[in-house]
Amino acid sequence: MPTKAEFKAMKKKPIKLKLRRGDKVVVIAGKDKGETGFIAAISPREQKAIILKENAENPEQPLPLNVAIKHRKAKTQQERSARVKIPMPIHVSNLMLLDPKTNEPTRVGRRVEDGKILRYGKKSGELIPDQKLPGEA
C-alpha cells in the first residue's frame, strides 16, 4: 500500500495528452457532435480544450463551439443588457483528431524516431505535423 507521500508524488506527474493546441479535431459527443474545428486552448490538468471553428464571413474572428449564453445586466442607464456567448471547454475524450492525409477522425499514436517522440494517425500511419493556429505567423 503506497504511503501518503507516494500518493502526492503520483498526483504531481504531468499528464500527457495526445492533442495539442492548433490541432484540427472533430467533436464526437455532446451537443456539437459532428462539428469540426481547431484547438484554441488546452488544459492538461483538467483534460479540457476550447474549440473554435473557422468563420467564413470573417476569417480573423473564429466562432466558438460548445457555447454557453450568459446574460449581462446593464450597470448604468447608458449601457445595454446583453446576451454574451462564452466558449466552454470540452473534455478531450469527446474530441478526435482529424487525420492529416484522409481528413477523417483517427486515434493518435506515439513513436520514437531519431530520439524524438512523434505523433502519428493510426488510420493512415501519417505523421501529424505541429500546426499553428489560424492567424498566427
Q: Gist?
A:
The protein has 137 residues and is mainly beta. The protein has one helix at residues 4-11; strands at residues 24-27, 36-43, 48-53, 63-64, 67-72, 82-87, 90-91, 95-98, 105-106, 108-113, 116-121.
Which terms would index this structure?
single chain; 137 residues; mainly beta; SH3 type barrels; seven-stranded antiparallel beta sheet; two-stranded antiparallel sheet; 1 helix; 11 strands; 6% helix; 38% strand; globular
Describe this structure in words.
The chain is 6% helix and 38% strand. With 137 residues, the protein is mainly β. The chain has 2 domains: 4-98, SH3 type barrels, CATH 2.30.30; 102-130, no CATH class. The strands form 3 sheets. Strands 1, 2, 3, 4, 7, 8 and 9 form a 7-stranded antiparallel beta sheet that branches. It starts with a helix and ends in a 16-residue tail after the last strand.
